[in-house]
Amino acid sequence: MQAISVQQPWAFAIARGGKAVSNQDLPTAHRGPLLIHASMRVDLKACDSPLIRSAGWDPGHPLATIGAVIAMADLDDVCSAGLDGSCDCGPWGEPGFHHWRLTSVRALPRPIIALGRTEPWQPSATLMTEVRTMLATAAATTDRLT
């Protein structure tokens, strides 16, 4: 499994399920589960953008935390046509970037504090155990309630 660190409020928009594209400088051969880590940096100009407002941006929400893993998603595809702006990745796909297409986004019930990296990174076994335990507990609770 890999993880990526994404600035807030973009990480929030991914975790809430509205942002299905992560704009990255490099492509990747990785496909499958991907942790979404909210980096320690915040894109302050983006906080007032219509796209972020449409994702329900709330700086007081736990998913707005910085320096923590906040979600897991599946990386299904990478669109490199975004480099010249000739793709159909929607409003979240910025021209000049590789668009990592995310599906099955699952927000964590609470953030898990972790150090991120500027490039895709390998989460520790301890972090992965904590993520899996948290998601399994949340699923079991949901099953009992339905």
Main features:
alpha+beta, 3 helices, globular, about 150 residues
Please characterize this protein's 3D structure.
There is one protein chain. The chain starts with a strand and ends with a helix. The protein has a single domain, classed as Hypothetical protein (Archaeosine Trna-guanine Transglycosylase, Chain: A, domain 4, Roll). It is 22% helix and 34% strand. The model has no long low-confidence stretch (mean pLDDT 93). Strands 1-3-4-5-2 form a five-stranded mixed sheet. The protein has three helices and five strands. With 146 residues, it is α+β, with helices and mostly antiparallel strands. The radius of gyration is 15 Å and the shape is globular.
Shape: globular
Q: How many angstroms separate the termini?
A: 30 Å
The number of helices is 3
Instruction: Report the sheet with the most strands, covering strand number, pairing sense and barrel closure.
Output: 5 strands, mixed
Do you know the CATH topology?
Archaeosine Trna-guanine Transglycosylase, Chain: A, domain 4
Gyration radius over CA: 15 Å
Task: State the total count of DSSP E strands.
Answer: 5
Q: Which stretches of 5+ consecutive residues score pLDDT under 50?
A: none
> How many discrete structural domains?
1
Estimated structural class: alpha+beta
Specify the CATH architecture. Answer: Roll
Helix-residue proportion: 10-25%
CATH class category: Mainly Beta
Q: Strand order across the biggest sheet? A: 1-3-4-5-2
H/E topology pattern: EHEEHEEH
Report mean pLDDT, rounded to a whole number: 93
The proportion of residues in beta strands is 25-35%
Superfamily at the CATH H level? Hypothetical protein
